[in-house]
Every structure is written in structure tokens, then in C-alpha cells.
Amino acid sequence: MAVLAESGSNPDVDLLYDINGLAKDAPHWFDRVMEYVGEYGILLGMVLLILWCWWAGRRRGGEDAASSVAALVWAPLAAALAVLVNVPIRGFVERPRPFRTHEGLEVLVSGKTDYSFVSDHATITMAMAAGLFVANRKFGLVGIALALLEGFCRVYMGVHYPTDVIGGFALGTAVTLLLSPLAMALLTPVMKAVEGSSKGAWIVRARGVERGTSVIPGARQEAAASERDLAA
């Protein structure tokens, strides 16, 4: 199990050279951008996307506000748990980084001495994207797109095989979705308790938004008009 791809005659290695070859032909400044985006930028973007979803959800309110916030809390927790699960997987597979086995790669990040399978970055981003999808499908789709971009960047940078990335996607998704029912069962009551408190309610819903209501322009006026029609 020490080596999953030793030869350049398999699709995994061929795709590695094809994607990483783009780095050789790209301008130096573009490679530096890809290095930053692949190493730090997308991870930061995922965190900001989760915060944006939380901010929008708390202003919208609704009966499912507590469960939505619980799903958002679960997203980073799932990512951290998935990375922990990856520790024994890496030790079992012991796959060297591609630049240690294959010559001619354009490596954009130095100092990578750990094993390659599976990619932590791909695992983290897809775990958070899956958790985000549970909370809000629109935000989740954006998160999945960012995770896919992260996977491309890791191969482009020459630090992972494509199968490292695919394995990370599978691991992050599996941990998030398989443990989601248990996580939601534990976190949702906590968020409902927070929602019902006087000091922590702002975490679940914005001030002025009552429990079980939704901040939709004109909603209150339409509800009042309906009541008047019924009364008449």
C-alpha cells in the first residue's frame, strides 16, 4: 500500500502531468496567485461563505432557523473530524508526494514532507461544502464549486495526485453526511435553547425577528390584508 501510482503509464499520473503542465506555461504571477488560492485563499473563502450563510439565515428567521445554524456549526466540526480520520489513512497508505516519485513537475509549494493520500485541503473544503449544503442548498452549491477549485489547485501546484483529491472529496463528504443525523440531533436542541435565551438569541436570528417568522419584504402587509379579508 506504500505506492498507489509509481508509473507514468496510468491515467492518474497522466492527468497529474497534464494539469501541472499548465503551471509551466503560465506566467509567474499567475502561479503565485494559484499558490495562494490553493494553500490559503479557498479555505478562507469557505469560512467567509459559511459566515455569509449564517448572516443571511439569521435575518430571514423562520421555524427552521435553529436547525440551519446547527448545520452551519456542524460544517467546520465535520471538517476537523474528517482531518482526524485522515491521519490513520495516510499512515496506512504511505503514499509519497508526487514530486518525490515523478520528475519534471512544477512544484509551487515547498516543504511538503508528509504523505499525499488523501488531500487534507480537499477533505476540509468538501466537508464544509457538504455541511453548507445541508444548511442551504444555494450556498452549498457555491461551496462545492469552491471545493472542486481547491482540488484542481492542489494538482496544479504539483503537491497531490488527482486521486488524492478525489479521495479527499469522498472522505469529507462521507464524514459530513453519515454523521450529520447524529450531529443535528445533538446540535439542534442546543441552538433552540440559544434561540430562546435573551442574550444568545442573536446567534440564531437577528434582533427584531421573532421566532417562527421570516423577514420577507411585504410579508407582514400581505398577512394583515388577508386577515382583513377573512374578517370581512
UniProtKB/TrEMBL annotation:
Membrane topology: Multi-pass membrane protein
Pfam families: PAP2
UniProt superkingdom: Bacteria
Keywords, sorted A to Z: Cell membrane, Hydrolase, Membrane, Transmembrane, Transmembrane helix
Domain named Phosphatidic acid phosphatase type 2/haloperoxidase: residues: 75-180
Membrane spanning residue stretches: 40-57, 69-89, 115-134, 141-159, 165-187
Keyword Transmembrane assigned: yes
Protein name per Swiss-Prot or TrEMBL: Phosphatase PAP2 family protein
Organism annotation: Streptomyces doebereineriae
